[in-house]
Amino acid sequence: MKAEDLYPLFAEELSRQEMNQTDAWIDIPEEVREKYKIYRPTPLVRATGLEKALDTPAHIYFKNESVSPVGSHKLNSALPQAYYNKIEGTTNITTETGAGQWGTALAFATRAFDLELAVYMVKISYEQKPYRRSLMQTWGAQVIASPSMSTKAGRKIITDRPNYQGSLGTAISEAIELAMQTPNCKYALGSVLNHVSLHQTIIGLEAEKQMAMADEHPDVVIGCFGGGSNFSGLSFPFLRHNIAGKTNTRLSLQNRHPAPN
């Protein structure tokens, strides 16, 4: 597969980042850096209360990504994705969201770069998390409960399973279908992909510098793991030193129990 194969769906620069196997570093555009300044760098906090509760000699630190305007790390990739789409002439973006973190982040980012956004939100989350839906709508996004009657994929699922409460896979199918049928429209994804992990490494790069300021280097890096954007963002900058043979930091990912999504 080549980057060009992804152009119909993703912004061209994001497609090139996805398939890039030659560049060790890719610069953050100045326009994105300016938006990052709203909330970055995020704090690296020593959890002294937890250390005391555990009665451990270990020094425990956590990287607090909740200080972003949308309350999560997802904005780290939403901003560059919106930016690259904007400069390439895209006017509309589609995406999916489960609990709403990614949809909220992309709604903020598309508002920042003056783009239109349609979010297919898993139906059960659409009903159970009205505040996330309200945030997306506040930033101008159209939020559609998935499955919906607005796409061929959604109509088939509703016809076959009228009481179906949705899944992330269904929402992705609807978002991609709409993107492929709408002029000047691209699709954006908030996890799993290489370019998303690339954007998220700003977390670990900052953490590395902050640890050095405290004259520390982690023995273990722990991160929660769903689609991988959070864990890769924190751990990959430390992993590169392991690969170079300079450190032996242990990486520990914590996955959720399998659950419908």
From TrEMBL:
<keyword id="KW-0028">Amino-acid biosynthesis</keyword>
<keyword id="KW-0822">Tryptophan biosynthesis</keyword>
<dbReference type="GO" id="GO:0052684">
    <property type="term" value="F:L-serine hydro-lyase (adding indole, L-tryptophan-forming) activity"/>
</dbReference>
<comment type="pathway">
    <text>Amino-acid biosynthesis; L-tryptophan biosynthesis; L-tryptophan from chorismate: step 5/5.</text>
</comment>
<dbReference type="InterPro" id="IPR006653">
    <property type="entry name" value="Trp_synth_b_CS"/>
</dbReference>
<dbReference type="InterPro" id="IPR023026">
    <property type="entry name" value="Trp_synth_beta/beta-like"/>
</dbReference>
<keyword id="KW-0456">Lyase</keyword>
<feature type="domain" description="Tryptophan synthase beta chain-like PALP">
    <location>
        <begin position="39"/>
        <end position="243"/>
    </location>
</feature>
<dbReference type="GO" id="GO:0005737">
    <property type="term" value="C:cytoplasm"/>
</dbReference>
<keyword id="KW-0663">Pyridoxal phosphate</keyword>
<dbReference type="Pfam" id="PF00291">
    <property type="entry name" value="PALP"/>
</dbReference>
<protein>
    <recommendedName>
        <fullName>tryptophan synthase</fullName>
        <ecNumber>4.2.1.20</ecNumber>
    </recommendedName>
</protein>
<keyword id="KW-0057">Aromatic amino acid biosynthesis</keyword>
<dbReference type="InterPro" id="IPR001926">
    <property type="entry name" value="TrpB-like_PALP"/>
</dbReference>
<dbReference type="GO" id="GO:0004834">
    <property type="term" value="F:tryptophan synthase activity"/>
</dbReference>
<dbReference type="InterPro" id="IPR036052">
    <property type="entry name" value="TrpB-like_PALP_sf"/>
</dbReference>
